[in-house]
Structures are given as structure tokens and as C-alpha cells.
Amino acid sequence: MSKRLARNPKSYENEARQFAEAAKMVKAIGFRNVTARKSGAVKIIDAEAGDGGRVSFWVKLGWSTAEYAAIQFGLFAGPEGSKRSNAAFIQFVEERIAHIKARGATHVLLFHRDTDAIALPLDKMGKAYAQQMRKFPALARNTKSPTMWFFDPRPTAKPELTAIVRRYAIPLELLARRADVRTDDPEARSRMAEVELRVSQVAFRNRVGKRCRWRCVVTGSAIGTILDAAHLPGRDWRKHNKGSDGILLRVDIHRLIDNKLAWIVDGRFHLSDAAKKEYAQYEGSAVARG
């Protein structure tokens, strides 16, 4: 079955919308003279960095949910992919990348709706996929289509799977300034560490939010934009990031606890004398369980 027959009109509408959003994001980050074009089914965003260098992104829109995202490189023609060797999958990806490079692309932009987009030099993309194939062949094969994962914070996921891709990533903000930035550039590595932290905390918030049913465990507030995921006492944010390692708190309640104006003791919320007047209604209240 062809791709067009297998998909519905709504999916094409969403794809077009995401492509437009990707172009807006590239411009907002600081690239100049941003233009979006399609070469057949290939989506490319051409842009100019601050140093005058040209950057052309092959835009790959991840099939995803809020919890994970991966890209596919196309379907094999002829015999099913399940009958082909791992080496055949890797070769297919390398040929696909060469085809895209011939159309002027210098980088790939992996675009996921719930995280910052990830940029990789096109030359590194094949290496990343080959490493995923060697370490996680079942996931990289995905039956008929070579598949590369770049975001998957689910508790059942393997962190090293997506770390392989991020190892080659370049922060878009840095690339917007310097078109020649490399993945081994000290500044790029430092900035990617910041991106990793931000992504891990997004994942942590999603896990905690689901466990707490997206309500503050003290106030019951369900306004998502004012809810923080807070680590429980004794949990280290560097290594304890399961849903059970945190609770969801309204921003002001979180600040009270951080500033030692409130505490959660034995499943109840307690206030300091300084905070009791304004927050008296919550003194001694039971903390909801996820």
C-alpha cells in the first residue's frame, strides 16, 4: 500500500501545519532569510546564520505522542523489511541521506511537538542510526521502515537509545549564530548539556503530572501552566526522575516549600507562622496521592 493510500487527509493537514511551525521556529531562534520549500516529498528550510553561512534543514516530523517521537526513512520496495539484514537497513538510510544531501541539505531538523527540535549535521545522521541499529536492532528496524528514535522518556524506554542521537546534536541557538559549529565544539557540548537537562525535566514533569492526575496535591488546582513537578525530599534530580519521585505543586506552594515557609510531613501540608495568614485554608490539609 502506498503512503498516500495508507494515510488520511487529516494527517497531511497536520504535516503541513507542523512544517509551517518548524519554519516559524527557525526564524524565531535567530536565523535570517528563512524560506521553506518542498522538493517532491522532501521538506527543506533554507536559512542564513549570523556569520553569513548557509544552513539548510531537512525537516523530519516525528510520528509521535506527547511521550515519544521517532522518524522513519521510508518504506523498502519489494520484499518486506523483516526479511532484510541489519546492514541493508543501514545502507538504505545512507542512500536516503545522500539523496537529501544532493538536494542541498546540510543538517536535519527532527521536529517533535512537545520538545525543542533537535538539529544534527546531515553527515552524522547515518552514524547515529547505525549505532541505534547495532545496540537496539528491534527498535531501529520497525518492520518495513528504518526508524530512528530521538525522544522517549517513558519509564519503560532505554535512555541510551535517544542519547545516541543527542550525542551528535547541535543547539539551534548556537547554529543560528555560527553555521560552521561542530558537535565536538566545547560550547556546543555545554549547550547540549543544558538541552538534555531541559528535556529530562519535561519528561519528569509528564510522569509526575500523570501520576498526580494533573492536579496540585495540596490545592487541587488543575491549571497546567501554574503547576510544577517537585522532587520529594531525599530525591536527587540528577538520578531520581520516575513519576513516584515527585509531586505536582502549584507554583506558589512550590515556592513556599523551597523557601522553608511550608513543609509536607507525614502526608499533610504545614505552614510557617509567616505564611499561615495568607494560606490558612491549607494548613494541615491532607496531601493527595497520585
Quick rundown:
The protein has 290 residues and is α+β, with helices and mostly antiparallel strands. The chain folds into two domains: 3-204, no CATH class; 213-282, no CATH class. It has helices spanning 3-6, 9-29, 86-101, 122-135, 137-141, 159-166, 172-175, 186-211, 251-258, 273-279; strands at residues 32-39, 42-48, 54-61, 63-64, 69-72, 107-111, 118-121, 147-151, 227-231, 246-250, 262-265, 268-271.
Number of strands: 12
The percentage helix is 25-40%
Mean pLDDT reading = 85
Q: What structural class do the secondary elements suggest? A: alpha+beta
Q: What is the count of structural domains? A: 2
Number of H- or I-type helical stretches: 10
Poorly predicted runs are 1-6
Shape: elongated
Biggest sheet strand line-up: 1-2-3-6-7
**Series of secondary-structure elements, N-terminal to C-terminal:** HHEEEEEHEEHHEHHHEEHEEH
List the SSEs and their pairings.
Elements: H1 3-6, H2 9-29, E1 32-39, E2 42-48, E3 54-61, E4 63-64, E5 69-72, H3 86-101, E6 107-111, E7 118-121, H4 122-135, H5 137-141, E8 147-151, H6 159-166, H7 172-175, H8 186-211, E9 227-231, E10 246-250, H9 251-258, E11 262-265, E12 268-271, H10 273-279
Parallel strand pairs: 3-6
Antiparallel strand pairs: 1-2, 2-3, 4-5, 5-8, 6-7, 9-10, 11-12
